[in-house]
Design a protein that fits this description.
The chain is of the alpha+beta class. It has 6 helices and 19 strands. The strands form 5 sheets. The chain has a 5-stranded antiparallel sheet with strand order 5-4-7-2-10, with no helix packed on it. Strand 13, helix 5 and strand 14 form a beta-alpha-beta unit. The N terminus and C terminus are likely disordered.
Protein backbone atom coordinates (compact mmCIF):
# COMPACT_ATOMS: atom_id res chain seq x y z
CA UNK A 1 0.00 0.00 0.00
CA UNK A 2 2.80 2.39 0.86
CA UNK A 3 4.58 1.52 -2.37
CA UNK A 4 1.42 2.28 -4.30
CA UNK A 5 1.09 5.70 -2.65
CA UNK A 6 4.71 6.47 -3.41
CA UNK A 7 4.23 5.38 -6.98
CA UNK A 8 1.15 7.58 -7.22
CA UNK A 9 3.05 10.55 -5.83
CA UNK A 10 5.88 9.93 -8.23
CA UNK A 11 3.48 9.81 -11.15
CA UNK A 12 1.84 13.02 -9.93
CA UNK A 13 5.29 14.68 -9.65
CA UNK A 14 6.23 13.62 -13.13
CA UNK A 15 3.03 15.03 -14.55
CA UNK A 16 3.57 18.34 -12.66
CA UNK A 17 7.15 18.52 -13.97
CA UNK A 18 5.89 17.98 -17.51
CA UNK A 19 3.30 20.73 -17.05
CA UNK A 20 5.96 23.12 -15.70
CA UNK A 21 8.25 22.28 -18.62
CA UNK A 22 5.48 23.01 -21.10
CA UNK A 23 4.63 26.26 -19.36
CA UNK A 24 8.30 27.15 -19.19
CA UNK A 25 8.72 26.59 -22.92
CA UNK A 26 5.68 28.76 -23.46
CA UNK A 27 7.21 31.45 -21.24
CA UNK A 28 4.46 31.22 -18.62
CA UNK A 29 6.50 29.51 -15.89
CA UNK A 30 10.11 30.10 -14.93
CA UNK A 31 11.99 26.87 -15.49
CA UNK A 32 14.73 27.70 -13.00
CA UNK A 33 12.30 27.76 -10.06
CA UNK A 34 11.52 30.42 -7.51
CA UNK A 35 15.13 30.62 -6.37
CA UNK A 36 16.11 32.50 -9.63
CA UNK A 37 17.15 36.07 -8.97
CA UNK A 38 17.54 37.18 -12.64
CA UNK A 39 14.95 39.45 -14.14
CA UNK A 40 12.87 37.41 -16.55
CA UNK A 41 12.46 38.56 -20.14
CA UNK A 42 9.21 39.32 -21.87
CA UNK A 43 6.72 36.52 -21.66
CA UNK A 44 5.94 34.58 -24.80
CA UNK A 45 2.24 34.59 -25.59
CA UNK A 46 1.49 31.52 -27.65
CA UNK A 47 -1.62 33.19 -29.04
CA UNK A 48 0.14 36.37 -30.25
CA UNK A 49 2.80 37.02 -32.92
CA UNK A 50 3.95 40.33 -31.47
CA UNK A 51 6.59 40.38 -28.72
CA UNK A 52 7.95 43.43 -26.93
CA UNK A 53 11.68 44.03 -26.69
CA UNK A 54 13.40 43.25 -23.42
CA UNK A 55 13.80 46.65 -21.68
CA UNK A 56 17.43 45.95 -20.71
CA UNK A 57 18.85 43.94 -23.61
CA UNK A 58 16.53 45.07 -26.40
CA UNK A 59 15.78 41.63 -27.87
CA UNK A 60 12.72 39.46 -28.45
CA UNK A 61 12.37 35.68 -28.06
CA UNK A 62 14.37 32.75 -29.36
CA UNK A 63 13.03 31.59 -32.72
CA UNK A 64 13.87 28.75 -35.08
CA UNK A 65 12.24 26.51 -37.63
CA UNK A 66 9.56 24.03 -36.64
CA UNK A 67 12.15 21.26 -36.71
CA UNK A 68 15.58 21.34 -35.11
CA UNK A 69 18.45 19.18 -36.34
CA UNK A 70 22.18 19.03 -35.96
CA UNK A 71 24.19 20.70 -38.76
CA UNK A 72 21.07 22.63 -39.79
CA UNK A 73 21.02 25.85 -41.81
CA UNK A 74 18.01 28.08 -41.27
CA UNK A 75 17.05 31.35 -42.99
CA UNK A 76 14.80 34.04 -41.52
CA UNK A 77 13.15 36.97 -43.34
CA UNK A 78 11.25 40.00 -42.09
CA UNK A 79 10.03 43.21 -43.70
CA UNK A 80 9.30 46.50 -41.92
CA UNK A 81 8.54 50.04 -43.00
CA UNK A 82 9.67 53.48 -41.86
CA UNK A 83 6.77 55.97 -42.23
CA UNK A 84 7.08 58.61 -44.89
CA UNK A 85 8.42 62.04 -43.88
CA UNK A 86 9.97 60.43 -40.79
CA UNK A 87 13.52 61.02 -39.64
CA UNK A 88 15.40 58.20 -37.94
CA UNK A 89 17.47 59.54 -35.06
CA UNK A 90 18.57 56.17 -33.63
CA UNK A 91 18.44 52.55 -34.72
CA UNK A 92 20.18 49.85 -32.68
CA UNK A 93 20.01 46.23 -33.80
CA UNK A 94 21.11 43.47 -31.42
CA UNK A 95 21.44 39.87 -32.48
CA UNK A 96 22.92 36.53 -31.46
CA UNK A 97 22.38 32.89 -32.44
CA UNK A 98 23.07 29.39 -31.34
CA UNK A 99 25.49 28.58 -32.93
CA UNK A 100 26.33 31.20 -35.66
CA UNK A 101 24.62 33.74 -37.91
CA UNK A 102 25.00 36.13 -40.85
CA UNK A 103 22.97 39.36 -40.69
CA UNK A 104 21.66 41.26 -43.74
CA UNK A 105 19.81 44.56 -44.12
CA UNK A 106 18.46 45.43 -47.56
CA UNK A 107 20.74 42.79 -49.16
CA UNK A 108 23.85 44.27 -47.50
CA UNK A 109 25.68 41.99 -45.10
CA UNK A 110 26.19 43.81 -41.79
CA UNK A 111 28.15 41.20 -39.87
CA UNK A 112 28.54 37.68 -38.44
CA UNK A 113 28.61 36.09 -35.01
CA UNK A 114 29.29 32.72 -33.40
CA UNK A 115 28.59 32.70 -29.62
CA UNK A 116 25.02 32.88 -28.27
CA UNK A 117 26.22 34.37 -24.96
CA UNK A 118 27.52 37.47 -26.78
CA UNK A 119 25.07 40.02 -28.16
CA UNK A 120 26.35 42.08 -31.06
CA UNK A 121 24.94 45.59 -31.37
CA UNK A 122 24.86 47.23 -34.82
CA UNK A 123 24.17 50.95 -35.16
CA UNK A 124 22.17 51.15 -38.41
CA UNK A 125 20.86 54.69 -37.97
CA UNK A 126 22.48 55.94 -41.16
CA UNK A 127 21.09 53.03 -43.20
CA UNK A 128 17.39 53.52 -42.47
CA UNK A 129 15.36 55.94 -44.56
CA UNK A 130 11.60 56.23 -44.98
CA UNK A 131 10.24 53.27 -46.91
CA UNK A 132 10.29 49.49 -46.92
CA UNK A 133 13.29 47.58 -45.54
CA UNK A 134 14.21 43.90 -45.42
CA UNK A 135 15.95 42.14 -42.52
CA UNK A 136 17.41 38.71 -43.18
CA UNK A 137 19.35 36.27 -40.99
CA UNK A 138 21.09 33.09 -42.04
CA UNK A 139 21.78 30.93 -38.96
CA UNK A 140 23.54 27.60 -38.52
CA UNK A 141 23.01 25.05 -35.76
CA UNK A 142 26.00 22.88 -34.95
CA UNK A 143 24.25 20.48 -32.57
CA UNK A 144 21.44 20.23 -29.96
CA UNK A 145 19.47 23.43 -29.29
CA UNK A 146 19.13 26.06 -31.99
CA UNK A 147 17.76 29.58 -31.96
CA UNK A 148 18.10 33.18 -33.15
CA UNK A 149 17.60 36.13 -30.83
CA UNK A 150 17.19 39.64 -32.24
CA UNK A 151 15.81 43.08 -31.60
CA UNK A 152 15.77 46.34 -33.58
CA UNK A 153 14.89 49.52 -31.69
CA UNK A 154 14.21 52.51 -33.95
CA UNK A 155 13.69 56.02 -32.61
CA UNK A 156 12.07 58.69 -34.78
CA UNK A 157 12.50 62.45 -34.52
CA UNK A 158 8.87 62.95 -33.48
CA UNK A 159 9.33 60.71 -30.41
CA UNK A 160 7.72 57.59 -31.85
CA UNK A 161 9.44 54.21 -31.66
CA UNK A 162 9.44 51.18 -33.90
CA UNK A 163 10.37 47.83 -32.36
CA UNK A 164 11.24 44.78 -34.42
CA UNK A 165 11.66 41.69 -32.21
CA UNK A 166 12.40 38.10 -33.06
CA UNK A 167 8.88 36.60 -32.98
CA UNK A 168 6.37 34.79 -35.16
CA UNK A 169 6.28 37.71 -37.63
CA UNK A 170 9.51 36.35 -39.06
CA UNK A 171 9.32 33.93 -41.97
CA UNK A 172 11.42 30.80 -42.44
CA UNK A 173 12.77 30.70 -46.00
CA UNK A 174 13.16 27.31 -47.71
CA UNK A 175 16.76 26.64 -48.69
CA UNK A 176 15.69 26.06 -52.28
CA UNK A 177 14.51 29.67 -52.77
CA UNK A 178 17.06 32.06 -54.27
CA UNK A 179 17.16 35.84 -54.00
CA UNK A 180 15.42 35.70 -50.64
CA UNK A 181 17.51 38.52 -49.16
CA UNK A 182 16.23 41.05 -51.71
CA UNK A 183 12.62 39.99 -52.28
CA UNK A 184 9.98 42.46 -51.10
CA UNK A 185 7.25 39.92 -50.40
CA UNK A 186 7.37 36.56 -48.61
CA UNK A 187 6.75 33.41 -50.58
CA UNK A 188 3.39 31.67 -50.17
CA UNK A 189 5.15 28.57 -48.84
CA UNK A 190 7.26 30.41 -46.25
CA UNK A 191 6.10 29.30 -42.78
CA UNK A 192 6.18 31.54 -39.73
CA UNK A 193 9.07 31.17 -37.35
CA UNK A 194 8.60 28.92 -34.31
CA UNK A 195 9.01 30.38 -30.83
CA UNK A 196 11.52 28.19 -29.01
CA UNK A 197 11.78 30.03 -25.70
CA UNK A 198 11.47 33.42 -24.07
CA UNK A 199 14.58 35.49 -23.58
CA UNK A 200 16.61 34.49 -20.50
CA UNK A 201 14.84 31.13 -20.11
CA UNK A 202 15.84 27.52 -20.70
CA UNK A 203 17.52 26.17 -22.69
CA UNK A 204 19.31 29.56 -22.61
CA UNK A 205 18.77 30.52 -18.98
CA UNK A 206 21.65 32.94 -18.69
CA UNK A 207 21.49 36.47 -20.04
CA UNK A 208 24.29 37.55 -22.43
CA UNK A 209 27.62 38.03 -20.76
CA UNK A 210 28.83 40.79 -23.10
CA UNK A 211 27.42 43.24 -25.63
CA UNK A 212 29.78 43.83 -28.55
CA UNK A 213 29.15 47.24 -30.09
CA UNK A 214 29.95 47.73 -33.75
CA UNK A 215 30.76 51.31 -34.89
CA UNK A 216 27.97 53.08 -36.82
CA UNK A 217 27.61 51.60 -40.29
CA UNK A 218 27.65 54.20 -43.05
CA UNK A 219 25.70 53.75 -46.27
CA UNK A 220 27.65 52.71 -49.33
CA UNK A 221 28.42 55.76 -51.45
CA UNK A 222 27.95 55.04 -55.13
CA UNK A 223 29.93 57.35 -57.38
CA UNK A 224 28.54 58.20 -60.78
CA UNK A 225 31.13 55.98 -62.47
CA UNK A 226 29.87 53.06 -60.37
CA UNK A 227 26.27 53.43 -61.49
CA UNK A 228 24.77 51.00 -63.93
CA UNK A 229 23.90 53.59 -66.59
CA UNK A 230 27.44 54.96 -66.63
CA UNK A 231 28.96 51.50 -66.98
CA UNK A 232 26.52 50.64 -69.76
CA UNK A 233 27.39 53.87 -71.59
CA UNK A 234 31.11 53.26 -71.06
CA UNK A 235 30.87 49.69 -72.32
CA UNK A 236 28.88 50.89 -75.33
CA UNK A 237 31.50 53.52 -76.13
CA UNK A 238 34.27 50.95 -75.74
CA UNK A 239 32.40 48.60 -78.05
CA UNK A 240 31.95 51.37 -80.64
CA UNK A 241 35.62 52.35 -80.41
CA UNK A 242 36.68 48.70 -80.68
CA UNK A 243 34.46 48.21 -83.74
CA UNK A 244 35.86 51.34 -85.37
CA UNK A 245 39.41 50.24 -84.59
CA UNK A 246 38.77 46.83 -86.09
CA UNK A 247 37.18 48.43 -89.14
CA UNK A 248 40.09 50.83 -89.60
CA UNK A 249 42.61 48.05 -89.05
CA UNK A 250 40.87 46.04 -91.74
CA UNK A 251 40.94 48.98 -94.13
CA UNK A 252 44.58 49.68 -93.32
CA UNK A 253 45.42 46.03 -93.93
CA UNK A 254 43.65 46.22 -97.31
CA UNK A 255 45.44 49.47 -98.09
CA UNK A 256 48.78 47.93 -97.13
CA UNK A 257 48.13 45.00 -99.44
CA UNK A 258 47.05 47.38 -102.21
CA UNK A 259 50.16 49.49 -101.59
CA UNK A 260 52.34 46.39 -101.88
CA UNK A 261 50.65 45.54 -105.19
CA UNK A 262 51.20 49.11 -106.42
CA UNK A 263 54.85 48.97 -105.39
CA UNK A 264 55.38 45.73 -107.31
CA UNK A 265 53.60 47.18 -110.34
CA UNK A 266 55.70 50.35 -110.20
CA UNK A 267 58.87 48.28 -110.08
CA UNK A 268 57.69 46.21 -113.07
CA UNK A 269 56.80 49.32 -115.11
CA UNK A 270 60.15 50.92 -114.29
CA UNK A 271 61.97 47.78 -115.46
CA UNK A 272 59.91 47.57 -118.66
CA UNK A 273 60.48 51.25 -119.49
CA UNK A 274 64.17 50.94 -118.82
CA UNK A 275 64.64 47.68 -120.71
CA UNK A 276 62.42 48.49 -123.68
CA UNK A 277 61.83 52.19 -124.30
CA UNK A 278 65.07 53.59 -122.92
CA UNK A 279 67.15 50.91 -124.61
CA UNK A 280 65.20 51.49 -127.86
CA UNK A 281 65.76 55.26 -127.70
CA UNK A 282 69.46 54.77 -127.04
CA UNK A 283 69.67 52.41 -130.00
CA UNK A 284 67.91 54.96 -132.24
CA UNK A 285 70.33 57.67 -131.12
CA UNK A 286 73.31 55.47 -131.96
CA UNK A 287 71.86 54.54 -135.36
CA UNK A 288 71.17 58.22 -136.07
CA UNK A 289 74.70 59.23 -135.11
CA UNK A 290 76.15 56.52 -137.39
CA UNK A 291 73.97 57.63 -140.29
CA UNK A 292 74.80 61.27 -139.62
CA UNK A 293 78.55 60.71 -139.79
CA UNK A 294 78.14 59.02 -143.18
CA UNK A 295 76.66 62.17 -144.73
CA UNK A 296 78.60 65.21 -146.00
CA UNK A 297 79.09 67.98 -143.42
CA UNK A 298 77.19 70.56 -145.43
CA UNK A 299 74.37 68.16 -146.18
CA UNK A 300 70.88 69.23 -145.07
CA UNK A 301 70.10 65.63 -144.22
CA UNK A 302 73.05 65.57 -141.82
CA UNK A 303 71.68 68.59 -140.00
CA UNK A 304 68.22 67.06 -139.89
CA UNK A 305 69.62 63.84 -138.43
CA UNK A 306 71.45 65.89 -135.85
CA UNK A 307 68.21 67.46 -134.72
CA UNK A 308 66.58 64.03 -134.58
CA UNK A 309 69.43 62.67 -132.47
CA UNK A 310 69.22 65.66 -130.13
CA UNK A 311 65.49 65.12 -129.77
CA UNK A 312 66.06 61.44 -129.05
CA UNK A 313 68.64 62.38 -126.40
CA UNK A 314 66.04 64.65 -124.75
CA UNK A 315 63.44 61.89 -124.84
CA UNK A 316 65.91 59.48 -123.28
CA UNK A 317 66.63 61.96 -120.49
CA UNK A 318 62.90 62.49 -119.92
CA UNK A 319 62.40 58.74 -119.85
CA UNK A 320 65.14 58.43 -117.24
CA UNK A 321 63.28 60.99 -115.11
CA UNK A 322 60.02 59.08 -115.44
CA UNK A 323 61.70 55.79 -114.56
CA UNK A 324 63.33 57.39 -111.53
CA UNK A 325 60.02 58.87 -110.39
CA UNK A 326 58.05 55.61 -110.53
CA UNK A 327 60.81 53.30 -109.28
CA UNK A 328 59.90 52.37 -105.64
CA UNK A 329 63.54 51.65 -104.87
CA UNK A 330 64.17 55.43 -105.14
CA UNK A 331 61.57 56.39 -102.53
CA UNK A 332 64.09 57.85 -100.08
CA UNK A 333 65.10 61.40 -99.32
CA UNK A 334 68.78 60.62 -99.75
CA UNK A 335 68.21 59.31 -103.30
CA UNK A 336 65.95 62.28 -104.01
CA UNK A 337 68.67 64.78 -103.06
CA UNK A 338 71.29 62.85 -105.05
CA UNK A 339 69.11 62.80 -108.16
CA UNK A 340 68.37 66.54 -108.00
CA UNK A 341 72.08 67.30 -107.73
CA UNK A 342 72.89 64.96 -110.62
CA UNK A 343 70.21 66.57 -112.76
CA UNK A 344 71.43 70.10 -111.98
CA UNK A 345 75.04 69.17 -112.72
CA UNK A 346 74.15 67.44 -116.01
CA UNK A 347 71.78 70.16 -117.13
CA UNK A 348 74.15 73.05 -116.36
CA UNK A 349 77.20 71.27 -117.76
CA UNK A 350 76.57 72.60 -121.27
CA UNK A 351 75.86 76.16 -120.06
CA UNK A 352 78.19 78.91 -118.84
CA UNK A 353 76.47 78.90 -115.46
CA UNK A 354 78.55 77.61 -112.57
CA UNK A 355 76.68 75.44 -110.06
CA UNK A 356 77.48 75.39 -106.36
CA UNK A 357 76.01 72.79 -104.00
CA UNK A 358 75.31 73.34 -100.32
CA UNK A 359 73.88 70.09 -98.92
CA UNK A 360 73.13 68.54 -95.56
CA UNK A 361 76.19 66.57 -94.52
CA UNK A 362 74.29 63.49 -93.38
CA UNK A 363 70.92 63.40 -95.04
CA UNK A 364 68.90 60.62 -93.32
CA UNK A 365 67.58 57.83 -95.48
CA UNK A 366 63.92 58.25 -94.52
CA UNK A 367 61.01 57.42 -96.85
CA UNK A 368 59.88 59.92 -99.46
CA UNK A 369 56.62 59.17 -101.24
CA UNK A 370 56.17 59.29 -105.01
CA UNK A 371 53.87 62.32 -105.08
CA UNK A 372 56.23 64.47 -103.06
CA UNK A 373 59.35 63.38 -104.96
CA UNK A 374 57.79 63.90 -108.36
CA UNK A 375 56.26 67.34 -107.71
CA UNK A 376 59.24 68.76 -105.82
CA UNK A 377 61.62 67.49 -108.50
CA UNK A 378 59.62 69.13 -111.31
CA UNK A 379 59.41 72.36 -109.31
CA UNK A 380 63.22 72.35 -108.90
CA UNK A 381 63.63 71.48 -112.57
CA UNK A 382 61.38 74.39 -113.58
CA UNK A 383 63.38 76.77 -111.38
CA UNK A 384 66.70 75.66 -112.92
CA UNK A 385 65.26 75.96 -116.44
CA UNK A 386 64.13 79.51 -115.68
CA UNK A 387 67.62 80.41 -114.49
CA UNK A 388 69.17 79.12 -117.73
CA UNK A 389 66.58 80.70 -120.01
CA UNK A 390 65.86 84.08 -118.47
CA UNK A 391 68.25 85.10 -115.68
CA UNK A 392 71.51 85.68 -117.52
CA UNK A 393 73.23 84.49 -114.33
CA UNK A 394 76.82 83.34 -114.06
CA UNK A 395 76.33 81.27 -110.94
CA UNK A 396 73.57 79.15 -109.39
CA UNK A 397 73.50 77.87 -105.82
CA UNK A 398 71.50 74.75 -104.89
CA UNK A 399 71.00 74.33 -101.14
CA UNK A 400 69.19 71.46 -99.45
CA UNK A 401 68.97 71.40 -95.65
CA UNK A 402 66.80 69.91 -92.97
CA UNK A 403 64.69 71.91 -90.59
CA UNK A 404 62.57 70.89 -87.63
CA UNK A 405 59.54 69.61 -89.52
CA UNK A 406 60.86 69.13 -93.05
CA UNK A 407 63.49 70.06 -95.58
CA UNK A 408 64.21 73.32 -97.39
CA UNK A 409 65.33 73.37 -101.06
CA UNK A 410 66.74 76.73 -102.22
CA UNK A 411 67.68 77.66 -105.83
CA UNK A 412 69.42 81.02 -105.95
CA UNK A 413 71.10 82.82 -108.88
CA UNK A 414 72.98 86.08 -109.36
CA UNK A 415 71.14 87.06 -112.55
CA UNK A 416 69.22 90.13 -113.53
CA UNK A 417 66.17 89.29 -111.41
CA UNK A 418 62.62 90.48 -112.01
CA UNK A 419 59.58 91.86 -110.27
CA UNK A 420 57.48 88.89 -109.03
CA UNK A 421 54.40 91.13 -108.94
CA UNK A 422 54.70 91.79 -112.68
CA UNK A 423 55.64 88.54 -114.40
CA UNK A 424 56.26 88.60 -118.15
CA UNK A 425 53.36 87.67 -120.38
CA UNK A 426 53.35 84.14 -121.81
CA UNK A 427 55.54 82.69 -119.07
CA UNK A 428 53.92 80.12 -116.77
CA UNK A 429 57.04 78.93 -114.94
CA UNK A 430 56.25 80.65 -111.64
CA UNK A 431 52.66 79.39 -111.62
CA UNK A 432 53.83 75.88 -112.45
CA UNK A 433 56.34 75.90 -109.58
CA UNK A 434 53.69 77.00 -107.10
CA UNK A 435 51.25 74.41 -108.39
CA UNK A 436 53.83 71.62 -108.15
CA UNK A 437 54.77 72.68 -104.61
CA UNK A 438 51.13 72.79 -103.55
CA UNK A 439 50.51 69.27 -104.88
CA UNK A 440 53.51 68.08 -102.86
CA UNK A 441 52.20 69.75 -99.71
CA UNK A 442 55.10 72.20 -99.83
CA UNK A 443 55.30 76.00 -99.75
CA UNK A 444 56.97 77.86 -102.61
CA UNK A 445 58.45 81.31 -101.92
CA UNK A 446 59.92 83.41 -104.76
CA UNK A 447 62.09 86.36 -103.75
CA UNK A 448 63.49 88.61 -106.47
CA UNK A 449 63.94 92.18 -107.55
CA UNK A 450 65.39 93.75 -110.70
CA UNK A 451 69.19 93.51 -110.73
CA UNK A 452 69.37 91.43 -107.52
CA UNK A 453 68.93 87.89 -108.79
CA UNK A 454 66.25 85.46 -107.74
CA UNK A 455 65.81 83.02 -104.89
CA UNK A 456 63.26 80.20 -104.97
CA UNK A 457 62.63 78.47 -101.61
CA UNK A 458 60.67 75.22 -101.38
CA UNK A 459 59.71 74.24 -97.82
CA UNK A 460 58.69 70.57 -97.83
CA UNK A 461 57.02 69.21 -94.67
CA UNK A 462 57.90 65.71 -93.50
CA UNK A 463 54.55 65.24 -91.71
CA UNK A 464 51.58 65.01 -94.04
CA UNK A 465 47.97 64.02 -93.29
CA UNK A 466 47.19 60.56 -94.57
CA UNK A 467 44.52 60.24 -97.22
CA UNK A 468 41.68 57.76 -97.37
CA UNK A 469 39.31 56.45 -94.72
CA UNK A 470 41.87 56.61 -91.93
CA UNK A 471 42.19 60.38 -92.34
CA UNK A 472 42.70 60.87 -88.63
CA UNK A 473 45.99 58.97 -88.79
CA UNK A 474 49.22 60.87 -89.49
CA UNK A 475 51.89 59.52 -91.76
CA UNK A 476 55.07 60.76 -90.12
CA UNK A 477 58.48 60.39 -91.69
CA UNK A 478 61.16 59.99 -88.99
CA UNK A 479 63.92 62.57 -88.94
Amino acid sequence: MQVAVLNGCAMHGLRWAAIRLALGLAGLWPLSGPARTQTAGPAVNTQSNQISLDPKYGVGAWIWASETRDQQLCRFWREFEIPRSSVVVSALLRVTADNSYRLFLDERELGRGGDWQDLTEYDVTLLLKPGLHILAVEAFNDFKEAGVLMGLDIGLADGRKIEIASDRNWKVVPLTDGGWRSTRHPGPDWPAATLIAAFDTAPWPQHPTTVIKVPPIAPITIRFWQTGWFQVVLLSLCAVVAMNCLRLMGKLAIQSQAQAVVQRERARIARDLHDDLTAGLTQLVLMGEVARTALPRDSESRQELGRVCEKAHGLARSMDEVIWAINPERDTMRDFVAYICKFAETFLKSTPIRCRFDLEEEMPDFPCDLEMRRNVFFAVKEAIHNVVRHSGAKELALRIHRQKDGIVVTIEDNGKGFDPARPEQGRNGLANMRKRASEAGAVCSIISSPGAGCRVVLTVPLVRPAKGPAHWLVSKIPV
